[in-house]
Amino acid sequence: MDQQLLVFVTVSEKGNFSRAAEELHMTQPAVSQYIQTLERTIGTKLLERTNKYVRLNKAGEIVYHHAKEILGLYTRMQSLVDDLTNHASGNLSIGASYTFGEYVLPHIIAYLREHYPLINPAISIGNTKEIETLVANHQLDVGIVEGTFKHEKLDMEPFSEDLMFVVVSPNHHLARKREIKISELESETWIVREEGSGTRESTDEMFQKFGLSPKKRMEFGSTQIIKESVEAGLGITLLSQWAIRKELTMHSLTTLKIKELPLKRKFSIVTKGDQFQTKATEVFIRLLKEKFSNLRKLDK
Question: Cys-Cys link to 278, which of 79, 113, 123, 183 (CB 3.0-4.6 A)?
């Protein structure tokens, strides 16, 4: 059954039998046979097929969602059995929200690979809500997200503090002021992240805390695009200290001197509350806690 589910998930994601066969190193007739067998087992058709595409029908969407969870559980089970050898090894699926995933996690992974070469990490980057969902559905072993939340299926453990600064171009008119009142920010054009992002959550919390209601806003789905836009003078933004380290060094961005800032938030480790952890996951979590405060020493 696990092979049938793997073939089904691959066909669903590739949208094509021949591409799925290539990915799985199988023949196309073999792929078709697996799909037919699964459909007979389930008792209904799962895919809509034409000469141009293969896509999920309603039943297929249900099976796909649960197949991903089942395959994740199977992989985790195999990892736990492998751990009986007392070696930290095997696959480790890590999810991280954008700020941590793009600007901090690479340093942790480099250290992990150097000291635990038998662990094979796979990284997924998404916004905080997406990472929470993937961990809850057994598609990730561990997640790192920004801020805090409550989820009945997940355990969350804050492990480090992050500082958030209002960032502008060095040529921005506010950059030349020695001290800025928080109320002055309301009339500026704000460039913000999308809903579901931890950085967007922090921005909205700042607006609420200080009673700000900026009328001019632009919403982008990438921290890098936001930084480029701010550097180009399109507006101002709130970003993590980790996201702007290089730009501050190169003087392409600068932070505003505001009495009430920087804001503080937490980076948190997210795991499934009701599951065993592999040794690889335990090693990674321990490494996060031990090394995060010394990340600057890991920069190369």
Answer: 79
